[in-house]
Amino acid sequence: MDVLSTLASGFAVALTPMNLGLVLAGCFFGTLMGALPGIGPINGIAILLPLAYSIGLEPASAIILLAGVYYGAEYGGRISSILLNVPGDAGAIMTTLDGHPMAKRGEGGRALALSAVSSFAGSMGALILLVIFTPLLTRLAVTFGPAEFVALMVFALCCLASMVGSRPVKTVIGALIGLAMATVGVDSGTGVLRFTFGITSLFDGIDFLVVVIGMFAISEILLLVEHHYGGGGRLEKVSKSFVRAADLVQVRWTVLRSTLVGFVIGVLPGTGASVASAVAYGTEKRLAGEHNEFGNGDVRGLAAPEAANNSAAVGSMVPMLTLGIPGSGTTAILLGALLLFDVTPGPLLFSQKPDIAWGLIASMFVGNIALLVMNLPLVGIFVRMLSVRQAYLVPVIVMLTFVGIYSIHGASFDLFFMILLGVFGFLLRKLGFSLAPVILGLVLGEVLEDNLRRALSISAGDWSILFNNGVTLTLWGLSALVLVLPLVMKRRRALRRRQAAAEA
User: Fold this and answer.
1) Are the beta carbons of 58 and 100 closer than 8 angstroms?
2) What's the pLDDT band for 412 if we cut at 50, 70, 90?
3) Which residues pair with 186 in a beta bridge?
4) Cα 128 to Cα 63, 116, 122, 125, 131, distances in angstroms
5) What is the reported pTM?
6) Do residues 437 and 174 make contact, with C-beta atoms less than 8 angstroms apart?
7) For residue 386, pLDDT beyond 70
8) Does residue 383 carry a pLDDT above 60?
9) Within a 10 A sphere around the Cβ of 455, how many other Cβ atoms?
10) Using CA atoms, how far apart are residues 146 and 314, in angstroms rounded to an integer?
11) Would you report the helix, strand and coil content of the chain in percent, each value rounded to 5?
């Protein structure tokens, strides 16, 4: 009953005219950002974050707006995946496998409607799980001290290194770049200047907004300019057919299983929607047996990744809100946004700032209902957005980023540094690096350092405090397991292949 009463108070916050308007605006803007190939939720939030900060929104209102962009982009990512065969973001890659074949055979409307319903079901199922499990995890996290948080941060970084992408070395390098950025500025304990190179603007450290805008938005602009001369894909026509009752019956268990898979994977630090959609798609393909049309327009192959990536987006909110650990690159930016507004995510957030925590959760219920209503009849508007020329799109993004950054401190240094980071981010992306680990390293680095410093202060410099109870030992053990297990599994697969080759 306590949960229901606090959720009701959250709805009171989310349904104020101001916040309701921000939810709808965030969902609409997010769907547009998700629909435009390559933009995605991270860039959408990165573009809006400085504006939300500079216009003086309340913390609850700002995070409700940005979260609306997040799950709106998860919805929108499917549009270009289905009609153009170009995923709007990494989480929508698996949607192309069966969504685009349906569009090619004249069932674009049916595919878009079914994916919208699957996304809605996945999000709402995950939100119910979020409401159930968040208070339980919060009660556990309240018992954590600095030593436990150090072990938890290390576990999150280990998860990131072993689970994100197919290039673990580049992921580790990206996280180290983020950790190095977190050390720039005046050491709060000793007053020593670290990596400032005599530049006074760096004495307070590297501004989180400048890093986010530079590495994501500016590098994305450079990629858009580059691709402007590369030509785009052919836009399939959208039929007027609607989702069929037979389709809903056929995918009901697929959506349920994919929602659970997406939520569990989303909760794990550093994984995100792309991993969830891939695992859900693979699971459903295996369960379908040999006689299936996966890859040729199977409705289960469309529903599974859509339910899973939206569920994972909700699941990634759990560690961010309860432990202060981002579950994905996008939630890392949301976590940074909360810190920017002097709100510290973690176990005390629900007791000290219940209006923000429960207002955000309630706004997600409202936003998902709005997205379903918005996406079914208005899909034609979003489809037309895909034909917007990049010659018009790039100047708008440039204007929003430059105005947003300059309005924060009024310092031209921030603009030049943002451009420098943008070029650096562009080069990293061209070399095959993901930028999400950089942001996760930047966010986790500061928290890790603060808690490590606090733990060593309590123990008078005795490092054994980091291993002095069951919780820390369990987390260290899990960290080692997460690092070692993929290597062991890789060796076992190689051994099986050699045995199969020898027997053949």
Assistant:
1) no
2) confident
3) 193
4) 20, 18, 10, 5, 5
5) 0.75
6) yes
7) no
8) yes
9) 22
10) 27
11) 75, 0, 25
Which one is predicted more confidently, 243 or 249? Answer: 249
Nearest of 3, 30, 5 to residue 129 by alpha carbon: 3
Residue 424's pLDDT band (boundaries 50, 70, 90)? very high
Torsions phi, psi of 193, nearest 5?
-80, 130
Amino acid at 92: A
Q: Are the CB atoms for 47 and 209 separated by under 8 Å? A: no
Backbone angles phi, psi at 210, to 5 degrees: -65, -40
As given in the structure block, the two tokens for residue 44 are 């959408």
3-state SS assignment for residue 167: coil
Residue 186 dihedral angles phi and psi, to the nearest 5°: -80, 130
Residue of 353, 356, 344, 347 whose CA lies nearest to 443: 344
Size of the chain in residues: 504
Q: What was the pLDDT predicted at 423? A: 92
CA distance 227 to 440: 27
> Hunting for tokens 């909360």 — which residue is that?
338
| pLDDT interval class at 256 (50, 70, 90) | very high
Q: Which of 442, 413, 341, 87 is nearest to 233 (CA)?
A: 87
Other CB atoms closer than 10 Å to residue 67's CB: what's the count?
Answer: 28
- As a whole number of Å, the CA-based R_g of the chain is 22
Of 245, 289, 272, 309, the closest CA to residue 92 belongs to: 309
Identify the band that residue 391 occupies on the pLDDT scale cut at 50, 70 and 90: confident
Mean pLDDT of 148-170: 73
> What pLDDT is attached to residue 388?
66
pLDDT-based confidence at 196, cuts 50/70/90?
confident
**DSSP notation for 250-267:** HHHHHHHHHHHHHHHHHH
Token pair belonging to 352: 């000290």
Q: Would you say residue 443 has pLDDT above 80? A: no
Mean pLDDT of the chain: 80
Contacts 24+ apart (CB under 8 A), 245-248: 247/110, 247/114, 247/299, 248/114, 248/117
Nearest one of 59, 61, 10, 4 to 365, comparing CA atoms: 10
pLDDT score, position 403: 78
**Tokens representing 158?**
């280990």
Integer Cα distance of 384 and 501 in angstroms? 52
Name the least confident of 91-105, 159-173, 432-446.
159-173
b/e sequence 75-89, b meaning 16+ C-beta within 10 Å: bbbbbbbbbbbbbbb
Decide if 383 contacts 238 (C-beta within 8 A): yes
Q: How far is CA 199 from CA 149, 186, 413, in A?
A: 32, 12, 10
What DSSP character marks residue 469?
Answer: S
